[in-house]
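Exercise 3.2. Students should predict the tertiary structure of the chain below and write it as structure tokens, then compare their answer with the key that follows.

Predict this chain's 3D structure.
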Amino acid sequence: MGILNCIEVSCWDLNKPVQELGTDKQNRIVIDRDVLPIIFIPGIMGSRLGTSQGDKVWDPDDKWFMSINYGRSKTDAEWKKSLVIGTIFLEDYLNVLNDDLAHNLRFADFIDDTRAFRKWGGVSWNSYGSFLTKLQTRDWDSTVNLFFEFPIHCFGYNWTASNGLSGELLASYIEEVIKTYTDQQRNCQQVILVTHSMGGLVARAACKLSGAEAKVLATIHGVQPTNGSPAAYWRMKGGFERPHDLPELEPMQWLRNPAKASGFLVDKAVHGVTGHITSWVLGTDGEEVTALLGNMPGALQLLPNSRYRDNSGSRGWLELVDATGKTVTLPVANPYEEIYRKQGVYYRLIKPEWLNPSSKEFTSAFKKSQWNLYLSYLQEAEDFHDSLFDKNQAEIYCHPETYQFHSTGIASADRVVFARSEDSLWESARRILSSVTEGVPKDLDGVGNALVFTAAGLGLPLAKKLVDVALNMAGGAVIKDNDWYANRGGYRDRVDAADLPEKEGQVNLVTMLPPSGCGDGTVPESSGRALQLQEEDVKRTFSIGESSDWEENPANGKAKQQADFAEGFFERSHEPIFNTASAQFITIAAIENICRKEIKRRLEMTDPTG
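Answer key:
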């Protein structure tokens, strides 16, 4: 066959004749592809963190560690704050645990020396492992594969600190990644960013505030709280909420997810610690959550900002309903002034004494210093959101080549409603009766219907059984109808006519109602799709749910049956969304579409025919 003749050809010269082919040689053409790194940026709590001394602080992959440090009854607000925040918030107190050998060895099949360089060890494998593996082992479209190779990187970050700071670090990491490949004599000019939740804020900050936009070919945002979410406010008032709506009753949903289904039922019944991990990790009441989130600049940047609108398009996402049904909505213009910086009124975001739950040093002066620190973090949050707003174009900033998807069909706090009522025995009885009949089939709902059944000749045994069931249910409802229980995964307070908290005298009871909007349980639809994207050539905003609209017009133009991606209640919630077939399909299709567009652009630039 003669001498082997290897000819290296740039992928961008494939539209030109190949030179140096020998007729008396065996020719082998080696295509030199571009390196296009994909950097995945997780959401809040999705990065593994430790102190600068190397002590582990947060590791969702280590269930024993999380249970011991966050799940026991003795791990109260004071303990959790001392662990995650320390005495006072310092932005360099926590670092990402990228080089934790013990953790990384658990995933030895997936994290070799190369992937250690890609920082896979710094993110939660339980949340993102299957997705990262899917990307890394992807058999990409043949055309795309001819021009690009896609090493998968991760960027874990200290999610307690400002997203602006994390954006600076991400911009530096992008530069480092590109330089590493160019130093290896590889052609690497840009990266693609894929984000989950808060990671979207970090990516947008890197692009707009830290100059990374030119180094980023495109971004893909999943369930991003673009303008914040009222869930952050809800949880700082009442803790992580109990499940409050039943998922689909279609049997396969329950059979496919028995552990999640049983956990949901436990939570629904008693708000037990085994059912809802975030409630006992971050807090079952407002005090525990505030002790953490109120001292985190990054977390405060998840609050609804001045441009937030609920699912109906209303600016006033906080509704205060009095005993007569009259409603006042806030904010009128600025939630920072009208809600977050308020003191005294019951709908304030922060009780100052909750910011530092240590009773040993809680003096008046200490209370003031803690409040002033909170105000500084809040100002940082307001400035951060303003910085992501393009005032010249009067729109929210995003990278010019952006895709986004959100989830729907799960009760979410797109607004927060406080209901006011008389603090009386009659009102207490009404609440108990309402609690007893909640979830009862309509034909058995209420004492009157039970009497009708009996009068219709159903007999004394059934009537007695109904009474027994009602008494048992009422007993549980009475136990639950107290302030301690109501404030674990909820909020109840007594206020006077001026909306000031008051325990005695002429007072009313105010109760924060369960979330009733639509979203993924954390981010409402309105915030998840808030980026105004140009869609002339291809669809760029997608919805994941039982009534998904994206399958009819996917990014790569291929037809897909909706039944292939009918994620149920347990799959499409906020935290595990990247484990769904829908999220993975959208991400992969968007990447391939982005690359085809770039290939076309670059080949047209080098077309020898002009």
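Discussion points: The first strand starts at residue 4 and ends at 10. The two ends are 38 Å apart (CA to CA).
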